[in-house]
Write a structure and sequence with these properties.
Layout lengths: L14 H16 L6 H4 L4 E2 H11 L4 H13 L3 E8 L13 E10 L1 H13 L8 E4 L2 E4 L2 E3 L2 E3 L3 E3 L3 H13 L7 H15 L3 H12 L4 H18 L3
Antiparallel strand pairs: 1-3, 2-3, 4-5, 5-8, 6-7
């Protein structure tokens, strides 16, 4: 009999892995899911959108993110899906009866939820550049912009005017004027995000916020990722 593997120790996780785990807990809570969902392998956060957030918005490398996700999987804190049958080719003499993950999304396990809950209780998220996606609302802790401290508590990502106004304020914080051209680009970027079109939104974001500070860049990108996540149904 093969011994059942035990979950790892969340205290040994890297900082990126801890942040991803807490993002997933925030998403789980925002969806209003119960404990049974942790055992049924619910549809969690898009792995691609998480990768975009951490690699382009938070300054992590592709390797950092991939290793962080591997840490969480190896520690039994998260799983990935959907699970699909192994693609056996017709005519092959050996038939493989197995399932594998397409790795389109990641979901919390019971151990992952408990670990994220313990981390939140012990070390509440107060870093100036940490964000998380939470259903139809983008939440952000206190961030510093220049000599001022801006408190961004919530952004209703379903309110076009509010989203555009908040992103415009962040754009102005980069030192660039919010002229008619910039406003039009911001509107186009937000419109693309609402359609779930990451490929169109990303280059506009890079053009507008390429020279912004990391704190400003991460908040603006976090809002866009939250919009794209919701538009994608994840």
């Amino acid at each position: 009999m093969v011994a059942k593997k035990k979950p790892g120790n969340h205290r040994n996780l890297s900082e990126v892995a801890k942040d991803v785990l807490q993002d997933m807990r925030a998403d789980f809570t925002a969806k209003g899911l119960g404990a049974s969902a942790l055992r049924r392998h619910y549809v969690g956060l898009s792995i691609e959108l998480l990768r975009q957030k951490y690699c382009e918005g938070a300054g992590a490398t592709q390797v950092d993110f991939d290793l962080a996700l591997k840490e969480l999987e190896d520690g039994l804190f998260v799983g990935t899906g959907p699970m699909v049958p192994f693609p056996n080719r017709p005519g092959i003499g050996v038939f493989v009866l197995s399932l594998f993950s397409k790795r389109e999304y990641a979901y919390l396990t019971e151990a992952g939820y408990r670990a994220a809950d313990q981390m939140e209780r012990q070390f509440p998220r107060s870093s100036p550049v940490r964000v998380h996606i939470s259903g139809g609302t983008f939440h952000q802790s206190q961030i510093g912009i220049g000599e001022q401290v801006t408190q961004v508590q919530k952004v209703d990502i379903e309110n076009d005017a509010e989203v555009i106004e908040r992103i415009t304020r962040l754009f102005v914080a980069t030192g660039a004027p919010a002229d008619e051209t910039a406003k039009a680009e911001i509107g186009r970027m937000v419109g693309a995000a609402q359609q779930g079109d990451l490929k169109e939104a990303r280059p506009i974001f890079q053009k507008l916020f390429g020279l912004a500070s990391e704190s400003v860049k991460q908040v603006a990108w976090g809002i866009l990722i939250a919009i794209i996540t919701k538009a994608s149904g994840m």
